[in-house]
Structure formats: C-alpha cells, structure tokens
Amino acid sequence: MKTRKLVMIGTGAVGSTTAYTLLLRNRVDELVLIDANHAKAAGDALDMNHGMPYVGGAKLWAGNYADCVGADIIVITAGAAQKPGESRTDLLQRNADIFDSIIKQILPYNQEAILLIATNPVDIMSYVALKKSGWPVNRVIGSGTLLDSARFRYLLGQELKIDPRSVHAHIIGEHGDSELPVWSLANVAGVDLDLADDVKEHIFTHTRDAAYEIIEAKGSTYYAIALALDRIVTAIFDDEGAVLNVSTLLDNYCDVSDVYLGVPCIVDRSGVRQTLQLNLTPDEQQLFEKSANKLKGMIDSLNLELDPNKM
Fold first, then answer.
1. How far apart are CA 94 and CA 108, in angstroms?
2. Domain-by-domain residue ranges, the chain?
3. Statement: 5-142 belongs to CATH 3.40.50.720
4. Is 38 a catalytic residue?
5. pLDDT tens string 1-34
6. How far is the C-alpha of 290 from the C-alpha of 309, rounded, in Å?
7. Distance (Å, whole) CA 208 – CA 178
8. Per-residue buried b or exposed e for 246-283, using 16+ beta carbons within 10 Å of the residue's own CB
9. What is the CATH code for 146-300?
10. In the chain, count of helices (H) and strands (E)?
11. Which of 7, 106, 210, 216 could cross-link to 71 by cystine, CB 3.0-4.6 Å?
C-alpha cells in the first residue's frame, strides 16, 4: 500500500496546528515539517513525536526541501507578516518573493505533488504558486472560501437551531473583504431559508469579519483553518470527489477568467477535478465580478518574474 506523505512548509500557528490535526486524525504516514526557522520546526516535531504512543505510528520529522521527494501533497502556510507602515501591495510583493524562493526549492525534488496553499491573501498566493511552478491548474489549490463557508453555515445553524452540517450555503469569491454570500441557493434539505434582510446582513457581516474578531481577541486564527485544510487533504488522499469551496484558476466561470477565486469544486486524488457553475442572480453576479476585478488589480501590482518555459 502506498505511503501517504505530506510536507508542511511553514510551522507558524496555522502550519503547526494543521500538522497536529492531521496527526490526530491519522491522515498521513509521513509528515515533514519545513520552516525557515528550523529550530521551530524541530521543536514542533519533537513535541508531536512525544505523543506518538497515543496516536499511532506516523513518521514525523523536521526536514528540508530534499524531503519533498515522494510527497503527495505539499502544503504552504509560510509567509511574511505585515510591518507597521507597510502597504498591502508591498506585503503582497514580499510574499510573492517568498513563494518564488519556496517553489524554486521544491521543484528539483518534486514535480508530481499537489500544492495546497493557505498563505494569505490566499487567492493571489495560489495564482503566484501556479505561475511560479508551471504545474497543471488542477494540482495548485488554494484553501479559498472553504473556511468562510464553514463560518457561514455555523452562523446560519445557530440562527436556525439546526446542525450546521445540514445547512447548505456558499461563500464564494475572494477569501477576504470582497467575498459574497450566495443567498439565492442557501437551503436546508432543499428548502429556501426564510430570513429577514437584517438577519441576513448580520450573519454575513459576522462571517466576513470573523477573522478580524478573532485576531483582535487572540492575535491570529488557526483552529478552523486547520480543520478546513484537513478536510481538503482528506478529500485528496481518499479520492472522494467531495464538493469543496476551494480556490482555483477560473476559466469562463460565471464570465470570470484568469484569476483564482473560491467556488464549489470537485476535489479528488487529481486535485481539482472540476468546477461547478452556480446559477447566480444578477446582483450576485455583479458582486462576483467585482471580487474578481479587485484581485486582478492586485495581481497586476505584483512584479511577477516568470520563467517562459512555465507559462
């Protein structure tokens, strides 16, 4: 039986929490932690290894890029934090440069894995990863609006007093301020949601701004995104064909192309097998296009030096 090997690049709060989640749920046989601060990765590996008598026999170690050999999935959570007085565009450029370095170090050792991107702004970083790697679109995936959709379903479940797993509702577009709720398709068991407009606005506002609330309270978010990444990893390893709102490069999706956005996708062992077109209302379509245009403008602000052989 083939060994399930995953490499985690970046062992900050998101990377280490995701690694721990994967370990607890027995998702992998081999788990490699890579970080620019190797001591941090080594400390995380040692700490988790001390719990092996309670969770099973996964092989886990702090490694380097040569350990990407044979990996099925490479998760990237590494990135720079915004400095005081630094513009978002400057931060974007720094993270694009970090991704350039990371991907250049991956490519000599692995050309067949799936790249799963969680670094923010995740849609743009996924686009950068695609262009820098030259890999097929299906194998470069962003975490997209999977977490946003989970937050949305949770809040709807709280309002309706229904298990959020029984609520079917989508947040699409940017993982960020221009995301949009697809109210026209939200339902429970096929039944439309009967909610007042002010309730809808309250739920969406708390969905969109959830990260700000959490960051204000404790500095960063990591538990729920770790669970979202675990969900994507599981869909890939188990060849599920699961429908997940991940970020992928769009090609005439609701009249939007050449940008990564979160939309419902079929995810299996090949990565993103297919996008599922939503029947948006005119207002939703307008908001979706606005989200796309915002991200395209940010991508245009980047100085992306691309290898012509990878375009």
1. 23
2. 5-142, 146-300
3. yes
4. no
5. 689 999 999 999 999 999 999 999 999 999 999 9
6. 32
7. 9
8. bbbbbeebbebeebbbbbbbbbbeebbeebeebebeee
9. 3.90.110.10
10. 10, 14
11. 7
| The length of the chain, given as a count of residues | 311
Q: What share of the chain is helix, strand, coil (3-state, %, to 5)?
A: 45, 20, 35
Strand boundaries in the chain, DSSP class E:
5-9, 30-34, 59-62, 73-76, 114-117, 140-142, 167-168, 171-172, 180-181, 187-188, 191-192, 242-249, 260-268, 271-275
* Amino acid found at 101: S
Partners of residue 59 on adjacent β-strands: 30
- Greatest alpha-carbon pair distance for the chain in Å reads 56
Question: How far apart are the C-alpha atoms of 183 and 170, rounded to whole Å?
Answer: 8
Give the HSE-up count for residue 310: Cα atoms under 13 Å, Cβ half-sphere.
17
Q: Rounded to whole angstroms, how far apart are CA atoms 124 and 132?
A: 12
| Options 38, 50, 170, 175, the catalytic residue | 175
> Which pTM was predicted?
0.95
**Tokens at residue 114, please?**
């799936």
Report the C-alpha gap between 98 and 79 in whole angstroms: 7
**Coil, helix or strand at residue 13:** helix
- Structural contact between residues 261 and 291, judged by C-beta atoms closer than 8 angstroms: yes
* Per-residue pLDDT tens over the stretch 46-82: 999 999 999 988 999 999 999 999 999 999 999 987 6
Q: Is 161 left (phi over 0), alpha (psi -120 to 50) or beta?
A: left
Scanning 50-114, the segments in alpha helix (DSSP H) are: 52-55, 88-106
Residue pair 200/171 in contact (Cβ under 8 Å)? The answer is no
